[in-house]
Amino acid sequence: MHLVLTYFHQIRGPEILMSYPEIELEQDVIEKLTKFFDLEINETFFEIVLINKHKKIINLFFELHSEWSRGKKELAMLSLIMDEKFQSQLIYSFLVDAVQKIISTENIFKGFYKNDLFRDRGKDIEIDLKYQSIKEILYFCLIKLIERLSSKP
Asked: Measuring CA to CA, how many Å separate 37 from each of 6, 30, 78, 89, 125?
């Protein structure tokens, strides 16, 4: 199981902001995740099945208010890469809950700028704090999901 937060960087395009566990994703999976932003999908929740890898990638697109972004919003996607055997309906509520926690955190958009070159690394501590907040939200939501999945017969 792998949880990935991808967002649309205003200059570089889609890129991965963070993932759990913090191990390197396979390059073909990274390419698939970032290319989802180029697809004209009318749904915010969708899944794909990687038949050869026996995996599902379950995704939820979302927007959040941003004072620093063009159009005053960040475009992002939370994805869970998992075995085919798990049911998507349970994952949908998990993704919605995690996204809601992210969106409801004040000034959370600043965490999306962790790797930007414009920021003054020594003076802009709020970016680091908000990035850490996103990591904590995702970590605790993932732990709760794993507990729920392991308690199911």
From this structure: 9, 12, 12, 22, 29
Q: Report yes or no: 127 and 152 within 8 Å, Cβ to Cβ.
A: no
pTM of the complete model? 0.88
Tokens of 127: 């970016």
Separation of alpha carbons 33 and 30, rounded Å: 5
Instruction: Give the domains, in start order, of the chain with CATH numbers.
Output: 2-151 (3.30.450)
Separation of alpha carbons 79 and 82, rounded Å: 10
Least confident of 50-59, 88-97, 115-124: 115-124
Which residue bears the tokens 């992002």? Answer: 76
What long-range pairs does 42-46 form, CB within 8 A, spacing at least 24?
45/92, 45/95
Give me 151's structure tokens. Answer: 């308690």
pLDDT attached to residue 123? 62
Q: Can you spell out the DSSP letters for 115-138?
A: T-SSS-TTT-HHHHHHHHHHHHHH
Average pLDDT score over the chain? 87
Q: What is the rounded distance in angstroms from the CA atom of residue 16 to the CA atom of residue 4?
A: 7
